[in-house]
Specification:
By secondary structure, this protein is mainly α. The chain is elongated, with a radius of gyration of 25 Å. The two termini are 30 Å apart. Helices cover 81% and strands 0% of the residues. It has one domain.
Length: 248
C-alpha cells in the first residue's frame, strides 16, 4: 500500500503509545498535585484530544526523514543519468545504492521498489511514477525535481546536465534545512526541559519531604492552588510549543 505522507492519521501502535504516555503523565500529575493517582486518569483522558497534534508532529517527522533519504537518491539518479541511462533505469539502479545506507523498511527503498514495479509490471511511465511520488509527499524539493525532469523530457533539454545542477541546488537546500532543523531541535529540547522543570522540582520535594506539600492535597484552598499551578504549567507548555513551531 502506497503511503500518503500528508496524512496525520496514526497507526494503532502509534495511538496506543500516545494514549499510554498521556495516561502515565496524567497519573504522575494527579499524584504530584493532588496526591491522588486515580485522579490522574481523568487528567490523562482529558489530554486525548491532543492526539491530532501529535499526529501532525509524526507526519512532519515522516516527511523530514523522506526528504533526507531523497537527497541520497538525487545524487544516485544524477550519476546514473549522466552515464547515458534513462530515468527509469536510474531509479532501478538507485535501489542497490540506497540499500547501502537504508533498510528495506525505509521510505525511499519502498518508494523506489514500488516505482520500478509499476514501470515493469503495469507499463507506467517513469514520469508518471515520479509525479505520483511528488504528489503524495507534497514536498517542495521533490516537486521541483520532478518539474525539472518533466520540462527536460518535453522540451528536449540536456537532462543529465539539468539533473546534475538540480541535484546540487536541491541537495544544498536540503542540507541547509537540515542544519536549521537541528538547531531548532536543540532549542526545542531545551525549552521542553524548562517546561518540565516544575514537575521535576515537585517530584523531588514529594520524595524528600512529603509533609511539605500535604496542605495542597488536603485543603480546599490548596487544591485550588494546585489546579491553578497545573493550568499555568500547561499554558506555558502550549506557548513554548507555539514558539517552537517555526516554518523553514
Amino acid at each position: 500500500m502506497l503511503m500518503n505522507y500528508e496524512t496525520s492519521e496514526l497507526s494503532l501502535k502509534e495511538k496506543a503509545i500516545f494514549r499510554i504516555a498521556v495516561l502515565a503523565l496524567g497519573i504522575l500529575a494527579g499524584w504530584l498535585f493532588y496526591d491522588k493517582a486515580s485522579l490522574g486518569l481523568v487528567i490523562g483522558a482529558a489530554l486525548f484530544p491532543l492526539e491530532k497534534e501529535y499526529g501532525k508532529s509524526v507526519m512532519e517527522k515522516r516527511k523530514n526523514e523522506l526528504l533526507l533519504q531523497f537527497k541520497d537518491l538525487l545524487y544516485s539518479l544524477s550519476s546514473s543519468v549522466s552515464t547515458g541511462r534513462s530515468i527509469g533505469q536510474g531509479l532501478e539502479e538507485s535501489i542497490d545504492f540506497c540499500l547501502g545506507t537504508y533498510g528495506e523498511d525505509d521510505y525511499i527503498i519502498r518508494e523506489l521498489k514500488t516505482m520500478v514495479r509499476k514501470m515493469k509490471e503495469s507499463n507506467v511511465s517513469e514520469m508518471e511514477v515520479l509525479k505520483d511520488f511528488s504528489e503524495r509527499s507534497n514536498l517542495e524539493d521533490i516537486r521541483d525535481f520532478v518539474m525539472v525532469c518533466e520540462i527536460c523530457k518535453k522540451l528536449g533539454g540536456d537532462l543529465p546536465k539539468a539533473l546534475d545542477k538540480g541535484a546540487e541546488i536541491i541537495g544544498d537546500k536540503i542540507t541547509l534545512e537540515r542544519e536549521l532543523k537541528a538547531l531548532m531541535a536543540q532549542k526545542r529540547f531545551e525549552s521542553r526541559i524548562i517546561a518540565l522543570a516544575p514537575f521535576i522540582l515537585i517530584l523531588a520535594i514529594k520524595l524528600l519531604s512529603p509533609s511539605y506539600l500535604e496542605p495542597l492535597a488536603v485543603t480546599s484552598s490548596g487544591k485550588v492552588i494546585s489546579s491553578i499551578a497545573l493550568a499555568m504549567i500547561a499554558a506555558g507548555w502550549v506557548c513554548i510549543e507555539r514558539v517552537n513551531r517555526i516554518e523553514i
